[in-house]
Structure formats: C-alpha cells, structure tokens
Amino acid sequence: MLKRLLMIGNIRPRLRWRGLTHWVLNLFRDMACHVPTSHLETRHRSSVWRSLPIAIALIFCCTLAAPAPAQALPSFIKGFIPRASSATNSAISTAYHQHMSDLIVEGTGTVERLLSDDNIGSRHQRFIVRLSPAHTVLVSHNIDLAPYVTNLREGEEVSFKGEYEWNELGGIVHWTHLDPRGNDHPDGWIDYRGDRYE
After folding, report:
1. Angle, alpha carbons 115-158-140 (nearest 5°)
2. Which of these three, 27, 45, 78, is where a domain ends?
3. Global pTM?
4. Number of neighbouring beta carbons within 10 Å of residue 174
5. What pLDDT is recorded for position 5?
C-alpha cells in the first residue's frame, strides 16, 4: 500500500487524483464484495478494513487541495487559507529593496497601527499598513484634499493607490487623492470597508 501511495504522489495532479480515485474504489469494492474463504483471505480483508481511515483522510486532503471559489468554501476553512499577495505589493517590495522613489503604486494590506494626524502645513491622516510579514509602509493621506477615512481600525484590510517614497523603515505612500489640478499627476485613493476616499 505504501508503494502505491508513493507512486500516486509522484505523478501529475490530474493523474494523481485519477489514481487515488481508482485505488479508493478498488478498496471499497474489496470490502463490499469479497467473501473470505481462507485464513489468508481473512487477513487480507482485515488489512483492507485497516486501510479505510487512510482512504478517508486522503479524500479529505484532496478535497481541501482542489481549487474552488472562495465563496464555496465553509467559513471555518476560509480562515485557514492565506490571501494571495497582490502583484502590486510585490512592486512596492521591489521599490523598497532597490531604494526607489516617486513611483505610482497600488497595494493592499492590514492596518497595523494608527498614528496621530499630522497638522503641520497640509493636514495628513497617518497609519501604518502591513503588506507582508516583513514589510510595512506608512500611508500619509492628505485630508485637506480628500475625505478623512472614517472609523479606521487596526487589524482591518485597506487598499490604496498613491506615490511611493523610499525610507529605511519601509517607505511612505502619499498622494492618495485626486489631482487637484486635474491632469498633472495620477490620481490616488484609499479603499476601506467598501468606500473610496479620494
């Protein structure tokens, strides 16, 4: 049986599923149809019954591994599936590691910490967003040009578009608002709880 499992694990996913299905069907057929006529066959049948928990576990694991829409998964399973990193987050990570600035970026992350508003000069709402376990950015949102992001809470998801400026702490994203002149600079925004602030 171990040899058969190893063989199944070394082939392509579609063939692996087909081979596993064939093995499980044969197992149940042996259990349902085979009537032992000797001591050796009795031992064979008991070994088949011992294989049943393995078959059930394999079916369960393959069911979880099979691709399915997120809305089709039970809520208790969704919590264990990490969200895929956005390609835009990768662009921010690249900009950070290469010390690049003045880039228009988009990103999605979790609000790590709320900071006090900066009221010197143009007023800015400030908060730190965690993009990955190893990278955070400071979002500096101009509230003289865009609405204040209301009821912002730590631990919740936020998306943004703005201009990235490098610093050693992970970088700053600003210009998360519409271009007040209309055509001199790409527009930015912040999406939070289904509302867009720009």
Report:
1. 40
2. 78
3. 0.57
4. 18
5. 42
